[in-house]
Amino acid sequence: MFNQTETQISEASNHLKHLTESEMLDVLECARKVSARDHALILVTYIYGLRNQEVARLRLTDLNWDSMTITARRQKNSLTTEQPLVRHKGRPALDVVGALETWLSERHDEDSDIVFVSKKISAKRGKALSQRSVTRLWAKYCKMASEARAARGLAPIARSLWHIHVAKHTRGTALVEKGARPQSIKMILGHRSILSTEIYLHPSQKIAWQEERRLMMGAF
């Protein structure tokens, strides 16, 4: 898997492969038990639909604790968006505020503005993680979650889902399944075009949304 280039891995994962809700929770729970940094990184990636390079370059200045918002600075012509920092007191694995507070209380790299700094005892310590490192972390916890699921008699997470971009697809799919409006999904995932959002919709939802758009534009 890791002999492939980042482009090849990304292209292979770009077919809307996604985790189920229980699989995503298992990945987050495994990360939470092992590393505050890794848990917060994966949770932020998932909740805000970030790519590996986008979460790796997240800065302390992107977290506004006064307004309780996070600025998601996206690449590949996607929108930069400001979104609320999510609280979920009943589910620590999904509590963005709690996860970030826990990690930042452990983080001791005062000279770095990067949120998810490398913890390696080397010249890389305090610097941003590489894209490949972020993907490796995701794969690590997918593997751990798969082993935990197998121990409970559940199906493991397919190896084809062990790339971090799957987290973005999982978020988009989960939002659709919970009934979120396409415009809301578009903003959460930072899509510049609504056409990028429509790929998450089921056929019946896509038809309904297209009809609604035509009405809004005065096409009838």
Task: Give your account of this protein's structure.
By secondary structure, the chain is mostly helical. It has a single domain (6-177), classed as hpI Integrase, Chain A, CATH 1.10.443. Helices cover 50% and strands 5% of the residues. The protein is built from 10 helices and 3 strands. It has helices spanning 6-13, 21-34, 36-47, 52-56, 96-106, 131-151, 165-177, 182-189, 194-198, 203-216, and strands at 63-64, 69-72, 81-84. It has a 3-stranded antiparallel beta sheet, with no helix packed on it. A hairpin with a 4-residue loop joins β1 and β2 (69-72). The longest helix has 21 residues, at 131-151. The model is unreliable at 1-15 and 215-220 (pLDDT under 50).
Residue-averaged pLDDT: 83
pLDDT < 50 runs, ≥5 residues: 1-15, 215-220
Overall structural class, as computed from helix and strand content, comes to mainly alpha
The CATH topology name reads hpI Integrase, Chain A
Strand content: under 5%
- The end-to-end span amounts to 51 Å
Tally of DSSP β-strands: 3
Q: What is the molecular shape?
A: globular
Widest β-sheet, arrangement of strands: 1-2-3
Q: How many distinct domains?
A: 1
Rg, Å, rounded: 18 Å
Helix fraction bin:
40-55%
Q: Give the biggest sheet.
A: 3 strands, antiparallel
The tally of helices reads: 10
CATH class designation: Mainly Alpha
Order of helices and strands: HHHHEEEHHHHHH
CATH superfamily: Intergrase catalytic core
Care to give the gist of this entry?
The chain is built from ten helices and three strands. The chain is mainly alpha-helical and 220 residues long.
